[in-house]
């Protein structure tokens, strides 16, 4: 299954691999999902399993965990086991569900299939033809485990996307082999002419579907939240912005990373509550925009600019006018809805001078 010059080389290489795996898990605990699969495969093929676990996995894992805890102790001022807290919040208590949930089949029916887009049939064909079941198993392992959680995001399964694309490439390489069957057609001059190869059709198909989609998703779709911050940054450079209130779901826009000015800004809080069922500011605003804004206005420091999506702006137009705000800019955001109601544009209202 694997060939190494010697047993010593195997053990040395494996220890380096375990060190990299341990560091990856210390930096990002979800890396353990992938490395547990790899580790189980290694355990399965290792002859001396007990030695592998006791003399390699435990010492290296314990050392990295200890160093991680010491570093956290230095930074937090108290003993904290971050991987344990991560496990408790995201897996044992389903804390991630606070940010939204999807059906169990979402990664299969939408998430991962959308990420692959038109590469999907090639990835499936490549995984079957290559018979690299370990790699196929890793993709299945990751998707199945994440499907057990209520909260799902595209980024969670990004680590296995390159493997699926590798299978797509393998499928194309099989189609491009010289010994693959060629289709001929009879021309008008009774001579036979080759049809363009199947791989040429496949490549043209992939380019024709993915390049336009890449441009659209990168340059057009949901660009309003970026454009509005660039605009506000320019306005702030001209000293036309004093403070900003974002009446939109939390973290909907970039923040100081794009503004580049030390100005007071306020966005709706979405910090998870220790008690389930208690809505945060963002949820309360989305449920009742007018009521929430009216309550907020009782204690706010009047901002010079208010930023919100068009869907909420329609409901708050009278409220904003009554507080002497007027619309100054509107930025296109999206042609279709994603998670919420259609957020077609981002609107900026400024306080009348």
UniProtKB/TrEMBL annotation:
<comment type="similarity">
    <text>Belongs to the glycosyltransferase 22 family.</text>
</comment>
<dbReference type="GO" id="GO:0005789">
    <property type="term" value="C:endoplasmic reticulum membrane"/>
</dbReference>
<keyword id="KW-0472">Membrane</keyword>
<keyword id="KW-0256">Endoplasmic reticulum</keyword>
<feature type="transmembrane region" description="Helical">
    <location>
        <begin position="132"/>
        <end position="150"/>
    </location>
</feature>
<keyword id="KW-0808">Transferase</keyword>
<feature type="transmembrane region" description="Helical">
    <location>
        <begin position="104"/>
        <end position="125"/>
    </location>
</feature>
<dbReference type="Pfam" id="PF03901">
    <property type="entry name" value="Glyco_transf_22"/>
</dbReference>
<keyword id="KW-0328">Glycosyltransferase</keyword>
<feature type="transmembrane region" description="Helical">
    <location>
        <begin position="199"/>
        <end position="219"/>
    </location>
</feature>
<keyword id="KW-1133">Transmembrane helix</keyword>
<dbReference type="GO" id="GO:0000026">
    <property type="term" value="F:alpha-1,2-mannosyltransferase activity"/>
</dbReference>
<dbReference type="GO" id="GO:0006506">
    <property type="term" value="P:GPI anchor biosynthetic process"/>
</dbReference>
<feature type="transmembrane region" description="Helical">
    <location>
        <begin position="156"/>
        <end position="178"/>
    </location>
</feature>
<dbReference type="InterPro" id="IPR005599">
    <property type="entry name" value="GPI_mannosylTrfase"/>
</dbReference>
<feature type="transmembrane region" description="Helical">
    <location>
        <begin position="16"/>
        <end position="38"/>
    </location>
</feature>
<keyword id="KW-0812">Transmembrane</keyword>
<feature type="transmembrane region" description="Helical">
    <location>
        <begin position="50"/>
        <end position="67"/>
    </location>
</feature>
<protein>
    <recommendedName>
        <fullName>Mannosyltransferase</fullName>
        <ecNumber>2.4.1.-</ecNumber>
    </recommendedName>
</protein>
């Amino acid at each position: 299954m694997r060939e190494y010059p010697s047993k010593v080389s195997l053990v040395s290489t494996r220890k380096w691999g375990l060190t990299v795996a341990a560091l990856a898990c210390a930096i990002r605990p979800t890396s353990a999902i992938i490395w547990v699969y790899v580790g189980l495969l290694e355990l399965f093929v290792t002859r001396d399993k007990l030695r592998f676990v006791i003399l390699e996995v435990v010492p290296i894992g314990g050392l990295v965990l200890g160093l991680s805890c010491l570093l956290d102790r230095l930074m937090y001022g108290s003993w904290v086991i971050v991987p344990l807290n991560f496990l408790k919040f995201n897996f044992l208590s389903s804390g991630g569900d606070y940010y939204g949930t999807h059906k169990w089949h979402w990664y299969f029916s939408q998430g991962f299939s959308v990420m692959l887009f038109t590469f999907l049939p090639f990835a499936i064909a490549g995984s079957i033809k290559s018979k690299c079941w370990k790699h196929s198993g890793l993709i299945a392992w990751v998707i199945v485990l994440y499907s057990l959680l209520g909260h799902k995001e595209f980024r969670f399964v990004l680590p296995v996307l390159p493997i699926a694309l590798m299978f797509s490439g393998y499928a194309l390489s099989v189609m491009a082999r010289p010994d693959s069957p060629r289709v001929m057609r009879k021309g008008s001059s009774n001579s036979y002419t080759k049809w363009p190869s199947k791989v040429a059709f496949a490549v043209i198909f992939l380019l024709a579907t993915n390049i336009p989609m890449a441009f659209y998703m990168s340059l057009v779709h949901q660009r309003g939240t970026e454009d509005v911050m660039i605009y506000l940054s320019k306005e702030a450079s001209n000293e036309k912005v004093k403070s900003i209130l974002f009446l939109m779901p939390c973290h909907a826009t970039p923040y100081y990373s794009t503004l580049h000015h030390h100005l007071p800004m306020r966005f709706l809080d979405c910090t998870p509550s220790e008690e389930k069922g208690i809505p945060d500011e963002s949820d309360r605003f989305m449920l009742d925009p007018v009521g929430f804004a009216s309550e907020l206005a009782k204690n706010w420091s009047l901002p010079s600019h208010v930023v919100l999506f068009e869907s909420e702006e329609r409901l708050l137009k009278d409220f904003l006018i009554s507080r002497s705000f007027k619309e100054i800019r509107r930025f296109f955001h999206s042609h279709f809805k994603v998670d919420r109601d259609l957020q077609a544009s981002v609107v900026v209202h400024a306080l009348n001078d």
